[in-house]
Amino acid sequence: PPTPPGEVPAPPPVSPPRVDPSPDRGVFKRVSLLVMILLSLVTLGIYPGAWLYLRREAFNRLSAAARLEDFLVYGVLGANILSVALSVADAGIHLGRTSFLASLVSLASFVLTVLAAFRIRTQLRDYARRKDPSGLAADQVARSPLWTFLFSFLYIQHHLNRLLDAGLLEPPRN
Q1: Which residue of 17, 31, 126, 149 sits 20 to 30 Å from the alpha carbon of 101, by its own alpha carbon?
Q2: Is 159 exposed, middle or buried (0-12, 13-18, 19+ CB in 10 A)?
C-alpha cells in the first residue's frame, strides 16, 4: 500500500541471517595421528567412520570427478558400529570366539574403509594437481597405494596435515 504524505515508509522486512549450527562441518583440521589412534582405540574402532562422516562434505568439495557416495560413508560408519556391537555381544556369549556374522561385518567394514580411503586418495591427488599445475604436489600427495591400503585414514590424515601445513588447503575459519 502507498505511504501517506509526510510519513516515512517502513523498511522492507529483513530475514534473519542463516546461522550454520556447525560452522566447522566440512572443513579440514590438522589432527595428530596419535590422537586418531587413541580415539580409535577408545571408541573400539568407531572413530574412523565418524572421522569420514564429519569430513565427507569437505572431501566432496575437493574433486567433482571422484565423489564420496553417501552409501560408502554411511556404510563405513554403520559397519564399524555394527561390528563393535556384534563383537561386544559375542564376547558376552562366546568368551574368546566371534560369530560368523561378526566376522562378516568386520570384513565388510574393512572393505568399505579401503574403498573410501582410495576414493579420498584420488580426490586429494586431483585437488593437488589443480592447485599446482606443475604436478609436483600431486606426485607427493598420497602417492603410495600400499600405504593407503595398510593405514587408510591415518595415511589420508597425514597428507591432509601436510597440505594444511603447506597452505594448499584452507584451515577452519575462526
Answers
A1: 149
A2: buried
